[in-house]
Amino acid sequence: MNKRFKRILIELKNHAPFTLFGAATGLICMLLFMNVGSGMNLRLFQVFHPLHVILSALVTASLYGLYEGKARFIKILLVGYFGSVGVATLSDCVLPFFGESILGVAIPVHAELHEHETAAGHEEQSRQVEGPESETGEKTPGIRERLHLGFIEDWYLVNPAALLGILIAYFRPRTRFPHAGHILVSTWASSFHVLMNTYRELTAPMLLGIFVVLFIAVWLPCCISDIVFPLLFVGSDNDLSHVHHH
Question: What is the model's pTM?
């Protein structure tokens, strides 16, 4: 257990530089796509989130299969699915949502709101809340940030993506993909989730806060998915010295 804990700490340290770079590219993506509308940001999220799930399932399932030996497919399927969909949801949806709530990106700075472009069906699901009182005592309309759970709302994309990654890992467990690429895909998915809920001007303090959110949202979940989660199910007598194989 002590050896495993030390290995996890080493991997967290090694992953930090990739994640810092990824968070920086996430900010660049937000600046480039900040004016395209929430509908387009939703579509971009629907590209990068399933792609993140594929890569996460591939890494998680292959790591488990390599170190556990001839594991039954059902075990690889369960570890790969929950280790990818669960952690990718945490990384791309849940943690960005909490960051959005703390930063207040969905709270407009003007009393009068402009019309915002939304995807078909996305606008109907968005919740409208009352904003601060105006000088006349009337409420101005506001917007509340919305948690978009990919495996539920985009189930037709996310669940097949997880299965694809698991199948690749099962038949070709030594398939490799640069971990820096995995970090970038995860960061971009998180960035577009934030953009879907952003209705404020991206000032320097706001960008700094988003940078911290992106770093945390990617760093811990990706390490949990790629390293910690599969090793929880690997026998303690297996060699963990080459865990960082991707």
Answer: 0.76
